Amino acid sequence: MDKVIEIVAFDQEWITLIKMAKKLGISLEEVRQFLNSASTKSYV
């Protein structure tokens, strides 16, 4: 049986963002909702 090695790279800025949000009491779901709402808005 062959072994599969998966390499996962994380963006350090995203990790820092999530850690800061957690310290401020902002849930991962709230961050997700914010990012989803921000991506649907047009800033013209």
UniProtKB/TrEMBL annotation:
Write the record's keywords in alphabetical order, separated by commas: DNA-binding
Biological process (GO) annotations held by this record are: regulation of DNA-templated transcription
Q: Which InterPro entries match?
A: SinR/SinI_dimer_dom, SinR/SinI_dimer_dom_sf
GO molecular function terms listed in the Swiss-Prot or TrEMBL record = DNA binding; protein dimerization activity
Where does the Sin domain lie?
Answer: 1-39
Stated name of the protein: DNA-binding transcriptional MerR regulator
